[in-house]
Amino acid sequence: MKTNFSCSLPVTIFREGKAFVAYTPALDLSTAGKTEAQARRMFVEAVELFFEELIEMGTVESALKELGWTKTKGSMQPPKVVTHSLMKVRIPTAA
Questions:
Q1: How far is CA 91 from the centre of its chain?
Q2: Nearest to 77 by CA among 5, 3, 7
Q3: How far apart (Å, rounded) are the C-alpha atoms in residues 27 and 58?
Q4: Of 21, 15, 7, which Cα lies nearest the Cα of 67?
Q5: pTM across the whole model
Q6: I need a surface site. Which of 42, 44, 62, 89 has the fewest CB within 10 A?
């Protein structure tokens, strides 16, 4: 019997050239589409495929722990995003 669970994942969507990219640090997973809506659909599909592969390999818990997930009340929870902001940094360049 197949069981499902749901969780909320932090997702950042940005433009890269003509593509829209959807990325989640919780799974270190990204995908892209021609439109924002397509990127979102592709993201859902990528997450489903990601978990299907982990289940097939029997590595769900170990893979998620490596990504910083924690086990709480019998289920795995993604890391909490504390903040999302832009930070100005100095980047050294070759002389």
A1: 27
A2: 7
A3: 17
A4: 7
A5: 0.83
A6: 89
Give the CA angle between residues 57, 44, 71 to the nearest 5°.
55
Helix (H, G, I), strand (E, B) or coil at 16: strand
Query: What is the C-alpha separation between 79 and 61, in angstroms, rounded?
Result: 14
CA 46 remoteness from chain centre: 9
pLDDT, tens digit, 9 for 90 and up, residues 15-73: 999 999 999 999 999 999 999 999 999 999 999 999 999 999 999 999 999 999 999 88
Q: Which residues pair with 12 in a beta bridge?
A: 23
- CB-based contact 22:41 (threshold 8 Å): no
* Distance from C-alpha of 79 to C-alpha of 95, rounded to nearest angstrom: 40
Q: What secondary structure letter does DSSP report for 30?
A: E
For the chain, which residues make up each domain, given as ranges?
1-95
